[in-house]
Design goal:
By secondary structure, this protein is of the alpha+beta class. It has helices at about 30-35, 40-50, 55-70, and strands at about 5, 10, 20.
């Protein structure tokens, strides 16, 4: 099954129990956000999960858009 792009660089690939992941990885968006909220820097997340800074920014932008729609 092909990945469904939800937002730029954010996809639903039907992996990770249906959680949204960063495109071409298996890194869930919620993990990236949780690590940043827990105090890791963007650079630490980038190094630990082998994703780009663009991927991290895309995760933040996606969450911001979701939060905006809820208000």
């Amino acid at each position: 099954m092909a990945a469904i792009e939800i937002a730029p660089r954010i996809v639903d690939e039907k992996v990770c129990f249906g959680k949204l992941v960063i495109k071409e990885t298996r890194v869930p968006v919620y993990i990236v956000l949780a690590k940043l909220a827990g105090g890791m820097t963007m650079e630490q997340v980038f190094e630990e999960y082998d994703i780009s800074l663009e991927d991290i920014r895309a995760s933040l932008a996606y969450e911001a858009s979701v939060t905006e729609r809820l208000q």
